[in-house]
Amino acid sequence: MADPDLLSEPGDSDSPAGLAQERRPSAVARLVGFLRGSWKELQRVQWPDRRQVMQATGVVIGFVIVAGIFLGVADFIASKLIGLIL
What we know:
Oligomer: single chain
Shape: elongated
Number of helices: 4
Largest sheet: none
Mean pLDDT: 85
Order of helices and strands: HHHH
Number of domains: 2
Radius of gyration: 30 Å
């Protein structure tokens, strides 16, 4: 048998869906709630100090240099192979 809640109209205030639609906060209230929650989360973040930022930056730059060298060598070898084939 079909569930009576599923058969009721969306605007019907007796159904759970109708109650949820009537109590939905405004867009401004939702935006304010989102901003407050975001601010609370930002206060909980452990921000890195200058030493940690410099260390992470060094690791990234080092990886980019190594990857660039690898890709440069791979490109050089591939271009020589293609030149031999053609």
